[in-house]
């Protein structure tokens, strides 16, 4: 199925690389982790050279084990086995067997949270969760009444109507994971709370998993927060860019206001149904807390609902990882966590030094009065969100303007409109444009050309259809019509004159077919450490843009 560009990506090339490096990624659990930059460098060097010999040995060994597994368990049984086998060595460690043990015994082993020792005198904060389930009628596949979609595939989705934990109390000190690391406290300067471990070489994480890996370090709190919605949040999404970033939005003598953005997803189905991945565009929000994290003044986490579609869904309908996958997108009206109030101490002392339990039953609840926070410097929420955006998506170093604004700006600056029309959004995880932005759109030559000669914009098909239907604005309606005339599924890249005439366009699938790396060419690919990854798609995209510039001359005889 051609539904997702990312699946139509440089297929063989990426698959092969993925195998060689999946071990490195998994090995990170046992080996001391190198710095991110160092390990990337290592990967770059290791993949083409040393990789080959080791990979050959390992592949032979694995394929033997795979055959034995298939004989013993059959395809469905082996699928289930593999879903637990996090490091793909076809052996289950006690750690990997843990979800099954918990399921069968009903007993979860004690959590060892090395970083957080419970302080009984510390403050606690209560969060409440709210959600309205995904509107099934917004899914494309609802158009024919989910004809041909097995009832079992959607079981997890249909039955998920409300948060599993409507309210939960956390020690305020756990929110220290949101504090800036040393040297990162500048307003608007973004840092990674949970760094992405995926890159163009690692490909993506497997779809055939049911249970999230045990969260570690800073993942623990985020895992607990998202677990209030559903018991199976995956803090590391299958696709890049994964992880969580934050920046300081405002600062006072004692407090920070920190804005964050998290790319995580949920797996909704249980055995024997196949996995169903529910990937909101993003989780964002802010936390106001004291610089020592002893007090949390405000906390809000939510999935933005201001676009017409905000969740990507992918589900398997067979035991084969690659071929049997369905994709759809839909609209989730609400998913959010809010603090019921600031964090408060559970124990307070009266003037004589006697302990009063502030939550004692029966007695008058203790009233806390909080001083107002006066920020000594701050940036706007929008600006902070933009900083996080660019950290996740370097392609946004050139601005992508809304449709209408792009045309008026292009008119004013005498530039062309570089426009991308997609079925799903370009800049979040509910998206079919992943491949584009991870390769061509963030490569420096493309960024430079776009910056110099184009005004960029991207739009959802659905939004253009609404503009087209708008009789109040005939000019814009006509521009949208001209765009849609050239659109074909799933993504179309367009070069247009400021008056809306389309001078050049290319469909993403054709584009990727033209540029997909053949496996035998892999070794010959040149790596440029300064300019990023120079792949054939970058030069093809440059050519596409230049052709657009040339074609304009036909319209402007001068
Ligand atoms: C875009 O061009 C302007 C002016 O030439 C320059 O200051 C800016 O750094 C450029 N941005 C990028 C992302 O290349
Ligand atoms: C836009 O301008 C070009 C060149 O001036 C012209 O050929 C074309 O017909 C115009 N298109 C529209 C939709 O007005």
UniProtKB/TrEMBL annotation:
Any Gene Ontology biological process: skeletal muscle fiber development
Biased composition (Basic and acidic residues): 13-22
Keyword tags: Membrane, Transmembrane, Transmembrane helix
Endpoints of the signal sequence: none
Region ranges (Disordered): 1-29
Residues that span the membrane, as ranges: 36-57
Claim: DNA damage is one of the keywords in the record: no
Gene Ontology CC entries for this record: endoplasmic reticulum membrane
PANTHER family referenced in this protein's UniProt entry, alphabetically: SELENOPROTEIN N
Protein name listed in UniProt: Uncharacterized protein
Source organism: Electrophorus electricus (Electric eel)
Lineage: Eukaryota, Metazoa, Chordata, Craniata, Vertebrata
Gene name as annotated: selenon
